[in-house]
Amino acid sequence: AVLGGCISIRDRLFRRSTPESATPTGAQRHAPRRSLHNMAALSFASSFGDHAVLQQAPAQAVVWGFAPAALGVTLTLAGGGLSSKLYGRLQPFNATAYTWRVSLPPIAADHKPYSITIEQAGAPSATLRDVLFGEVWVCSGQSNMAFLVENAFGGAALVQDANNHPEVRLFTTRKLTAGSPLQELGQDTNE
Asked: 141 with 6: CB under 8 angstroms?
């Protein structure tokens, strides 16, 4: 069995409910608005979050984010019988922040949740929870990406069936226009 995830860079594909909530949001996550002013906190980039799917072995998934200082960062990967400490590489981002990057070891899809914690001396840690490893598909398009599965013929049944596949997770960025490449998903374009 292969786990899957889809990153839609246009709009949501479908929504589903989870046992924790009757609201149909499921593992769908939207990139938060992020200002360049708050990138100076130790954090993961907004493309990473709880309930994410990262690329499975043989590839090495790469995670990255922001750090407030040029001090080293330590990443702890735990789950699936594994506990590893890895060290990140830092690069200047702007006058007040740095970016960090860590390549994870290749991890096979196993339906077991992992947690990923990043730490830096003098800064509060940040943790991703319930992360799975599997196939990651990046989807893009025009109106075809804005069409919701629930609006297709038999779509309501397909959306309900999605509840039987909690390992399939979606991530959607908000629609925006920018005059130059953005450093971060969801970045405020009015800066």
From this structure: no
pTM above 0.70, yes or no: yes
DSSP 60-90: --EEEEEESSSS--EEEEEETTEEEEEE-EE
Is it the case that residue 31 has pLDDT exceeding 50? no
- 3-state class of 155 per DSSP? helix
With H, G, I as helix, E, B as strand and everything else as coil, classify residue 47: coil
Residues near 57 by Cβ (< 8 Å), separated by ≥ 6? 106, 107, 108, 133
Give residues with Cβ within 8 angstroms of 131, minimum separation 6: 50, 51, 52, 53, 54, 79, 113, 114, 115, 116
CB 77 within 8 Å of CB 114: yes
> 3-state class of 173 per DSSP?
coil
- Size (the chain), residues: 191
